[in-house]
Amino acid sequence: MVVLVALGVVVFGPDPSAENGEPVASPPPTPEEPRVQPSGPQEAPRAIPAVRSWEPADGSGWAVTPDTRVVAVLDGVLDDEAERLADELSVPVVEGDEALLGDVLLRVDPDSALDREEYTLTSRDGVLTITGSHDAGVFYGTRTLVQSVQELGGVAEGEVRDVPDRPQRGFMLDIARKHFPAEWIEDRLRQMGDLKFNQLQLHFSDDQGFRIESEEYPEVVSEEHLTKDEVRRILALAESLHITVIPEIDSPGHLGAVLNAYPDLRLLDRDGEPVRGAIDISQERAGELIDGLTREFAQLFPGPYWHLGGDEYGALYYRDPQASFPGLAAAAREEFGSEGTVQDLATRWLNDRADTARDLERLPQVWNDGMHAGGAIQPDAEREVTYWTGREIGARPPEEYLEGGWQLINMSSEYLYYVLGEPVGFVYPTGERIYEEWTPEVLRGSEPVDPALGGPENILGGRFAVWCDLADRQSVEEVADGIRLPLHATSQKLWNPDEPELSWEEFTALADRLEAGVRT
């Protein structure tokens, strides 16, 4: 239970003995009352991801005492952070900006030179102060504090200055091929928040299912699905943890569940056979359908990004797409002239969907193998590219995208793809490989790109991905267990891609202790 001290009154929860459930009031502690001197550890703070800068100082450090309170200005900016931290430390929340001995002071200083997600955590003279220029930085500071209390019992005298190396640090979940209950997703969000991830990508439409309730297109929705109320609950929790949820409706491939309700929009080859999951991009109604779904779900998902998919369009996997799909070829020639191809039509399709996303004030993201080179039309520039492969048809080495001016998000299938059942050569990634070998610059294979093409301004970050190709091969509990350490390792390398100070054995032991709440 959170205790709120404001305007000189301590307000607890309703006392069963009080009339009409009226709150019980008692006077707050005053500066004149003796307060317990905190006695903290001497070791540097320990957290996952590890802090990037620690300056020790002389002093007794900070630890929770019987007098400890969380002090913050509760004007709507730090309310969530203060209440969550107070619950975790089992101490009261105090409205204000002046801390006493043993307190934790949370501060947002909009005039600070700190970046949006940067924070300082200062233990000095028995007071612990977390400062950020935005509430996100303060939140990350509280994650470091809680972990240090769990691991060491407090924080030594000194100052942490911490900032992530990459602005996009995420987890992608394929809920289309396998239904994941809302509670499971919420548990992952809490885990992500503690690890300082800031993005969750939900791939909720594919050949096997469409997994979120639709009021405008109920015919496409699978029997097992999330209701919109469940999604709103997920979004509210994500927002409180400073995690942006990125929706993905993949097209023009991977649309099997939608096309079950719209069979007339299926792509047919020259023999009249439907191509699995592929929509007929020569039909105007096809674009209207996907744009309609996008507009509906843009009202549900408030974040700044929209993932368009774009990968693995079946027509382009034929040796001669023009001969195999004469209808698409004719449409391409009509639109782009005699040299127009099916690939051009696919590029135009994704450009059109990107226009719809931008009209909805969303920044498009696309899979890299939907970005085709050459042809009569080029992919538009205003998009971010999630790079997962250099092997698929239409895929290119990462350098080509970077040299073309597109910013990438690293979703390396070599290190960051957890594909259920391990089909077509995939193996479950290990946290150890990620921790010891991978950095955001390692986009394809195991070698980094040229440093001149890398850096946070070009490679914005990365996402660890769960794909459910063989959905029944693992239960949701087995998935949670299988991705636990890979998520920890990914968090560490996105926050700081340098070689970690801890060995893998030390890192996993720390992760186990933090999860179990066991102190060294």
Structure description:
By secondary structure, this protein is of the alpha/beta class. The chain has two domains: 53-162, Chitobiase/beta-hexosaminidase domain 2-like (Chitobiase, domain 2, 2-Layer Sandwich), CATH 3.30.379.10; 168-518, TIM Barrel (Alpha-Beta Barrel), CATH 3.20.20.80. The protein is built from 13 helices and 21 strands. The strands form three sheets. A ten-stranded mixed β-sheet has the order 3-2-1-6-5-7-9-8-10-4, with helices on one face. Helix 1 packs parallel to helix 2 (135-152), helix 3 (182-194) runs parallel beside helix 4 and helix 6 runs parallel beside helix 9. The protein is elongated, with a radius of gyration of 26 Å. 47% of the residues are buried.
Give structural attributes.
alpha/beta; Chitobiase, domain 2; 8-stranded parallel beta barrel; 520 residues; 21 strands
Radius of gyration computed on alpha carbons: 26 Å
Helix content: 25-40%
CATH class of the largest domain: Alpha Beta
Largest sheet: 10 strands, mixed
Mean pLDDT: 93
CATH topology of the largest domain: TIM Barrel
The helix/strand class is: alpha/beta
Taken as a percent bin, the fraction of beta residues is 15-25%
The strand count comes to 21
**How many structural domains does the protein architecture include?**
2
CATH architecture grouping of the largest domain: Alpha-Beta Barrel
Oligomer: single chain
Distance between the termini: 27 Å
Number of helices: 13
- Global morphology: elongated
Strand order of the largest sheet: 3-2-1-6-5-7-9-8-10-4
**CATH homologous superfamily of the largest domain?**
Glycosidases
